[in-house]
Design brief:
disordered N terminus; 5 strands
Length: 209
């Protein structure tokens, strides 16, 4: 009897989730990106556009980290540092891709947020940035080399172009499979809930099980 109750509960939960996903409304819960961004079709891709200087991105980071920890097997996640069309925010993108090139994102990504929003350091200026990374035990010469590299500068340009193609108007912005940007007037938990529903929507649209 208990097993039947458990099975019924699971079916009911799936039906409720499907109904919830069906209630998404364009303009209220998501924005359609047209033409869609190119996405890796081997998995459902979720992209966060962010800026280190954005206090909302800083507040969102712990919620996002918890969500990343429970990603379904068919879903991938990537961060893209936003760059405005006029080039503003490019130092933050350059820092992100420099840390990525040096395999230091796991160690220093959150530390950058803390330096800006908690410690109030002006690491948007090169002198302060180089002093800060040296204080974190990073080899200054290696950092300068990566910071000035063609590869990092190319990634910054690509991030700018991707943000323009996505039609971003602010950050943090969550884009699901290059097709939909999640929208909410509520809290970050509600934003994540919309992302989950959009992932389910793409899963259904692409015939994934």
């Amino acid at each position: 009897m208990k097993s039947w109750r458990g099975l019924f509960g699971a079916i009911l939960a799936m039906l409720c989730f499907s109904a919830s996903a069906a209630e998404l409304q364009a303009g209220r819960d998501f924005r359609v990106i047209n033409p869609p961004l190119v996405a890796d079709n081997s998995r459902i891709e979720v992209t966060e556009f962010f800026w280190y200087g954005c206090p909302h991105c800083f507040d969102f980071e712990p919620v996002l980290t918890q969500w990343i920890a429970r990603l379904p097997a068919d879903t991938s996640f990537r961060r893209v540092p936003a760059v405005l069309p006029d080039g503003r925010w490019s130092p933050g993108a350059r820092l992100y891709y420099t840390l990525e090139a040096m395999n230091l994102l796991d160690a220093l990504h959150v530390e950058v947020f803390k330096a800006i929003h908690v410690e109030r350091k002006r690491i948007d200026e090169e002198k302060h940035l180089f002093d800060w990374v040296a204080g974190k035990g990073v080899d200054p010469a290696r950092f300068r080399e990566a910071w000035s590299s063609f590869g990092v500068q190319s990634r910054v340009r690509q991030a700018r172009e991707l943000g323009i193609a996505a039609g971003l108007t602010g950050v943090p912005a969550m884009v699901v499979h290059g097709r939909y940007q999640a929208v909410t007037q509520g809290n970050y938990g509600e934003l994540i809930a919309v992302v989950d529903q959009l992932v389910a929507r793409v899963r259904s649209e692409t015939g994934r099980k």
